[in-house]
């Protein structure tokens, strides 16, 4: 399988539902497509005609997937981070990916295939590393209280100190 767009390509191992998973992921992200499909032949080890491997792109990022059997399972040590600019984006990705999966704290979730995702606010890293430690701490406290990210609450926590300082002036 020749995926040449990126030098490093995430490769996802599924027991036997790679085709279902890839079709789902391509349906979630607008700028996405399946680029290649290879199927098992007579040599096996899976049934002839079953998808062996697939190449696909999500928002321009190349991925590969394989139906490799039950030997490897996903866990939260590897996740995919989605930077979102709006609450509508967060809501759409979070709801679609969480369906049949498991919601977790701080914008994390595990989808129905066991893959971990972080559906997060694009400004959050800047907010959490602000030179004003009190401001960054307020944002961290707000984020830790959330499952799905709430941009309005994060922005309010971030701006709280500025509002207080402006009121004192």
What is the spatial order of strands in the main beta sheet? 1-4-3-2
CATH H-tier superfamily of the largest domain: 2,3-Dihydroxybiphenyl 1,2-Dioxygenase, domain 1
Low-confidence parts: 163-169
Supply the CATH class of the largest domain: Alpha Beta
Percentage of helical residues? 25-40%
In the CATH hierarchy, the third-tier topology of the largest domain is known as 2,3-Dihydroxybiphenyl 1,2-Dioxygenase, domain 1
Shape: elongated
Number of domains: 2
Order of helices and strands: EHEEEEHEEEHHH
First-last Cα distance = 63 Å
Global mean pLDDT: 91
Give the count of helical stretches: 5
The number of E-state strands comes to 8
Q: Which CATH architecture of the largest domain would you pick? A: Roll
SS-derived structural category: alpha/beta
Q: Which sheet architecture does the biggest sheet show?
A: 4 strands, mixed
Radius of gyration: 20 Å
Fraction of residues in β-strands: 25-35%
Jot down its keywords:
26% strand, Signal recognition particle alu RNA binding heterodimer, srp9/1, disordered C terminus, 5 helices, 2,3-Dihydroxybiphenyl 1,2-Dioxygenase, domain 1, 2 domains
Describe the protein in words.
The protein is an alpha/beta fold and 169 residues long. It has five helices and eight strands; from the N terminus they run E-H-E-E-E-E-H-E-E-E-H-H-H. A four-stranded mixed beta sheet has the order 1-4-3-2, with helices on one face. It has a four-stranded mixed beta sheet with strand order 5-8-7-6, covered by helices on one side. A hairpin with a 5-residue loop joins strand 7 (108-110) and strand 8. Helix 4 (133-144) packs antiparallel against helix 5 (151-168). The protein is elongated. Mean pLDDT is 91; it is low at 163-169.
């Amino acid at each position: 399988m020749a995926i040449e767009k990126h030098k490093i390509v995430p490769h996802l191992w599924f027991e036997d539902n790679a085709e279902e998973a890839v079709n789902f992921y391509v349906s979630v992200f607008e700028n996405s497509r399946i680029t290649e499909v290879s199927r098992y032949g007579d040599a096996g080890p899976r049934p002839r005609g079953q998808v062996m491997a697939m190449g696909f792109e999500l928002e321009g990022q190349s991925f590969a997937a394989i139906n490799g059997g039950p030997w490897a399972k996903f866990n939260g040590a590897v996740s995919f981070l989605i930077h979102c600019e709006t609450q509508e984006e967060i809501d759409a990705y979070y709801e679609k990916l969480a369906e049949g999966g498991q919601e977790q704290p701080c914008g994390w979730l595990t989808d129905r295939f066991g893959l971990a995702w972080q559906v997060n606010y694009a400004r959050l890293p800047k907010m959490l590393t602000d030179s004003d430690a009190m401001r960054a701490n307020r944002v961290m406290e707000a984020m830790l209280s959330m499952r799905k990210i709430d941009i309005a609450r994060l922005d309010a926590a971030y701006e709280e100190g500025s509002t207080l300082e402006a009121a004192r002036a």
